[in-house]
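Render this sequence as a predicted structure.
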Amino acid sequence: MAEGKTPIPSAPADVTDVDPIWDDWETPPRVPSIPELHVDGFDGPLDLLLDLAERQQIDLGRLSALDLITQFVAAMQRLAGRVTLERRADWLVLAARLLLLRSRLMFPASPAEAATAEQDAAAEELRLGEMLRIRAAATWLEARPQLGQEVFARPRQKQDGRTETTMALLEACLVVLRGPRSRPETAPLYRPVLMQFWRVDQALARIRELLAADPLGGELGIFLPALEPETGQGGNRTKQARGALAGTFVACLEMAKQGEIGADQDSLFEPIRISLPQPALQSAQAS
């Protein structure tokens, strides 16, 4: 052994619970500068976590307040006899500041936000209550005996066709014996009145007939048919007039497309004039 060095005592033979930090007799004990925390989203010392939280460079919402408190209390208890009271007090201040920042995320910052939070909480509570009732009803239904599994229905008896025929014959005989008054009255049938509209084929025949008599033709209105007089049902004459105009207009477009007639209009919304096409008109005038 060299001179001037104090011999390191060996560990007692009766020591069974050895702390690798404080009870290592081969190396001098070391005192941690600050407790280290290992939570979701962060692994490191307490002062670094507080600094990141104050500068808003870490999401405190991910950190569990319960885990922070549990790990800090465990570190304080483990280091109670080895760290001075002043240093532990500094650690407690840092932990309190950190928990204050974390608690602000759990409470609203204004009365309006508090009222909104209360409404959301009430709605969530109501939804959870409805979910519990639905689950209870579903559990009750599942516990009921299932048809075809726990219980079985009695099979239906096949009905004899002769019995039904006999009953129908007896009912018919009873109606005949009671006379005509016992027969059920026939329910009145609803038969809507069908309106006769001017069809496209009728409009085609009328246009050809009028142009054969007068090749110069005229406005579209002269090719409309004569309407029936009012029958007492409101709006029938108006509907017939609209139907006749629509049918005649469709017939006019079809004949103009095929080249049978000429259709002209001076400007927008002006009356449409119908006549024979120019070659046919010159031939008719020459004859």
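Summary. DSSP finds eight helices and five strands in the chain. The helical segments are 46-54, 65-78, 85-104, 111-143, 161-178, 200-213, 236-258, 278-286.
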